[in-house]
Amino acid sequence: MIRVVLLGAGNVATHFYSAFYKEKTVEIIQCYNRKNIKLHPDQKEDLIITDLSDLKEADVYILAIHDDAIKEIANLLPFRNKFVVHTSGSVPIDVLGTNNRTGVLYPLQTFTKDTYVDFSTVPFCLEAENSNDLQTLKTLASSLSKKIFEISSAQRGILHVAAVFVNNFVNHMFAIGNDICKEHQVPFEILHPLILETAQKVSLTDPDSIQTGPAVRNDTKTIERHLNILKEKSQKNIYQLLTTAIQDKHGKKL
Amino acid sequence: MIRVVLLGAGNVATHFYSAFYKEKTVEIIQCYNRKNIKLHPDQKEDLIITDLSDLKEADVYILAIHDDAIKEIANLLPFRNKFVVHTSGSVPIDVLGTNNRTGVLYPLQTFTKDTYVDFSTVPFCLEAENSNDLQTLKTLASSLSKKIFEISSAQRGILHVAAVFVNNFVNHMFAIGNDICKEHQVPFEILHPLILETAQKVSLTDPDSIQTGPAVRNDTKTIERHLNILKEKSQKNIYQLLTTAIQDKHGKKL
Q1: CA nearest neighbour of B194 among A64, A169, A179, A154
Q2: CATH number of the domain where residue B45 is located
Q3: pLDDT for B203 beyond 50
Q4: Average pLDDT, rounded, for chain A
Q5: Domain range for residue A145?
Q6: What is the pTM of this model?
Q7: CB-based burial of residue A194 (10 Å sphere; 0-12 exposed, 13-18 middle, 19+ buried)?
Q8: Cross-chain residue pair A175–B207, CB shorter than 8 Å
Q9: Model confidence pLDDT, tens digit, residues A41-95
Q10: What are the start-end ranges of the H helices in chain B?
Q11: What pLDDT, on a 0 to 100 scale, did the predictor assign at position A252?
């Protein structure tokens, strides 16, 4: 049995509570948040604390709090040499300081408050200073998911950059597609199945091997026609830069 | 019963054959291709023709052939005033000429040869010169899919540009994410669930309302760190242009 104290009351803390609550190998012995917020309807009120000096003995203290607050709360913990982890993708492990043994338990997924999260498909990125603590995190994460990865702080930084491309920038491509359709009274939903298939394919194949479209075909007539249709300068610039990037990348391989 | 002649032997023709073959309301009375290729193991050989002059009387002649061949084959058809359609996303209806009544039956999905296609989720874009013929296409497409859209040639042109953004350019974002991970020995598969969720969300919500990341937060520290990590010039340029585009778009709304 792993005894857990959960600090925070946001999306990650709430989803972690609901998930660990069902696990027999994990016991949430206490929750801390300043506003005395319940993370689950079944949660006993006397297990919620608002004062860090009331923290009980536990195997792991999970700081599921805002990136900017991790350093401050880690410094305020009233004990030494216990196992303290954060859950952030972009904060290095050393922000947790040197008072305690430190680690990271980072579920790489976007969480929305009232949407159920199926943790079994969520990749967990784990990091710990020593191997015993890493084992604790592995046991903890394995109770929720089969996708466990040992990832250093430097590697997490890399994942974060890659995620900007495959999530943030991809979403902006969807936004542009949506804008183009709206402007010309074409229902964007016609493109939904194509969007889904594009995403599904990437789990099966190297993205370079399935690059299609006028850029990789060097279909200059179509490229010109498309650039004439695009009226907004930003859309035109993106179309041109990405067309050139695709051509350079695939030209190099020939 | 709609009597269909299918011209072509590529992916679209093959998938159409398998799909229509099962439908009681559709009868494929003949297939044409120059190499005498069977589109299905059950297909009777005397129903395959290699000479356009052997074409039988049908309700609709479907040219499921390469974009560049549509004009030529349409001109070679040895009859007048019959209903002739093509299946292309990027070719205008008037390429079919004026000898026959013309239309378009465009399934908006990418087809791979040996992969089963579930047409029930594929959006069909229909176009026809006259309303009777449009009704024939609606009946034909409805036998396969519930997603039927009446789309003009001009609108199809718009869909094609939008598809370049949401499919071709998105795939290039995946390729860059993959390259970044590879370069730093981080398994790209960690990002697969995030990629899938990003695509799933777009069917439920306006993409602008769910834009996240350092660009929209104007998190200049993170943006600078990311630009330092990116070594390849093309990746840097794309990061900068898309970051500015996201900031301009979301700044405007404030």
Answers
A1: A169
A2: 3.40.50.720
A3: yes
A4: 94
A5: 2-151
A6: 0.87
A7: buried
A8: yes
A9: 989 989 999 999 999 999 999 999 999 999 999 999 999 999 999 999 989 999 9
A10: 11-21, 70-76, 131-142, 153-163, 170-183, 192-201, 214-217, 220-229, 233-253
A11: 60
Cβ atoms of A236 and A205 closer than 8 Å:
no
Question: Are A113 and A234 in the same domain?
Answer: no
pLDDT at A222 over 70: yes
- Rounded (5°) CA angle B107-B108-B111: 80
pLDDT in tens, B80-97: 999 999 999 989 999 999
Question: Across chain A, where does the E strand assignment appear?
Answer: 2-7, 26-32, 48-49, 60-63, 83-86, 101-107, 124-128, 148-150
User: Mutating which of A194, A212, A235 best tests the B interface, going by the most B Cβ atoms within 10 A?
Assistant: A194
Q: What is the pLDDT of residues A1-22, one digit of tens each?
A: 999 999 999 999 999 999 999 9
Least Cα separation, residue B92 to chain A (angstroms): 13
CB atoms within 10 A of CB A209: 8
Interchain CB contact of B91 with A (< 8 Å): no
Cβ atoms of A106 and A85 within 8 Å: the answer is: no
The alpha-carbon gap from A231 to the nearest alpha carbon of chain B, in Å, equals 12
**Same domain as B129, residue B161:** no
Listed range (A124-138, B104-118, B223-237) with the worst mean pLDDT? B104-118
Mean predicted confidence (pLDDT) in A236-248: 97
Strand A124-128 relative to strand A101-107, pairing: antiparallel
Assess whether A240 and A161 both reside in one domain: yes
Best of A15, A112, A160, A164 to disrupt the B interface (most B CBs within 10 Å) is A164
Residues of chain A numbered 129-168 and touching chain B (CB < 8 Å): 147, 149, 151, 154-155, 157-168
Tally of domains in chain A: 2
Judged by DSSP in three states, B49 sits in strand
For chain B, the C-alpha Rg in angstroms (whole number) is 23
Residue A184, pLDDT above cutoff 60:
yes
